[in-house]
Amino acid sequence: MLISADWHLTKEQMASFDGLFYAPPILSLMRESGALLLLGDLTNNGRPAEHEAAARLLEDLSNRTGARILLLPGNHDLPRSGFGPADFEALYRRFGFDGAAGRDPASLSRAVVLRGATYLLLDTCRPGEPRGSVSRETLNWAEAVLKTAPFPVIACAHHPPMAYDAFPPDLPEGGEELAALLARYRVRYCFAGHRHENRLVERGGFRQVTVGMPGVWPCVLWKADDGVAEPVPLLRPGHPRLAAAKEELRAQAFAMGRAILKRRGVDDPRAEGWFEQAYLAAQGMDRDGLARLARDPARTVWQGLGQDSIAVRWILEVTAR
User: Fold this and answer.
1) Closest to 164 measured CA to CA, from 224, 220, 207, 109
2) Residues 120-153: tens digit of each pLDDT
3) What is the percent of the chain where pLDDT is above 90?
4) What are the DSSP calls for 288-311, one per residue?
5) Phi and psi dihedrals of 222, rounded to 5?
6) Which stretches does DSSP call E strand in 226-292?
7) H helices of 126-239, where?
8) On the CB side of 121, how many CA atoms lie within 13 Å of its CA?
9) Distances 139 to 17, 50, 177 between C-alpha atoms, Å
10) What are the pLDDT digits (tens) for 60-106?
11) Backbone angle region of 96, left / alpha / beta, with phi > 0 → left and psi within -120 to 50 → alpha
12) Which residue in 4, 55, 102, 266 is deepest, having the highest Cβ count within 10 Å?
């Protein structure tokens, strides 16, 4: 099973999907694997026209590759109005609703049996809100599935249920309870998106894999087969587009740090450079450099800015490890 997340496609990108640099390797991998699971935020704005184009795209990808596609909603897919959960189910019935082994009456959560595994597809979205939630009804339904699942369970959600850094707004309400439930029933993996980064964290044998965007460095999908999860590169080392993706991430980091400092009235090139390096290290480009960045005097500038910014709390937390 290939697993990806957060494509954030506009209607125009869907119409010219094959022209995206990561489309050809995804199509090739889909032909090899025969199955693709998308963890939400397929669309960028969740408008009806985007969803209609997305459904046509998924139909086309499935027909061309012979791969079965399963789809979860993300917060960008379910805006506050204009396209709701009932619309999502009606439009995407082919992608994991029809033929599901179980359905949660309280959400779009489903259980799908495929290739000797039970995929617990958990709907963690609240329409119109970035932060998600898992209701008591859905937790009860999930436990009933876990008790009777005929095959090993792989859990999947848009929002990572288990906290692993200083981004509390991303933790869905009821998320830690869900993570504890999955661990109690010895679910080995939970795959999630939303964070636009690739990260594997483990707690007591329970592994949470956060899946990044395919078009953002390091440009990977994930594969789950035979109880093992591993990243699958979309581009070979040295590919010019991979280097471009790295530079795009570097520019994003620099712009973010500069904007935060500017809002606080701080003009400090050392602090700008420190934030860029820390951001890239936290994303996996230079994890060995985190200890050095923790000792850098420029870090004290960010400490002095206070903790009201989520980005500042995050960057200080990852460099304190």
Assistant:
1) 207
2) 999 999 999 998 999 999 999 999 999 999 899 9
3) 73
4) GGHHHHHH-TTHHHHHTT-S-SHH
5) -115, 155
6) 228-233
7) 136-148, 175-184
8) 26
9) 37, 31, 8
10) 999 999 999 999 999 999 999 999 999 999 999 999 999 999 999 99
11) left
12) 4
Angle between helices 240-263 and 269-282 (to 10 degrees): 130
Judged by DSSP in three states, 208 sits in strand
Q: How many CB atoms lie within 10 A of CB 67?
A: 20
Q: How far apart are CA 44 and CA 77, in angstroms?
A: 7
Q: What would the two tokens of residue 90 be? A: 């009606």
pLDDT class for 238, splitting at 50, 70, 90? Answer: confident
The predicted model scores a pTM of 0.89
In the block, residue with structure tokens 């957060």: 6
- Dist. CA 215–CA 318, nearest whole Å: 24
CA terminus-to-terminus distance, the chain: 33
* Other residues' Cβ atoms within 10 Å of the Cβ of residue 140: 12
Q: Which amino acid is at 134?
A: V
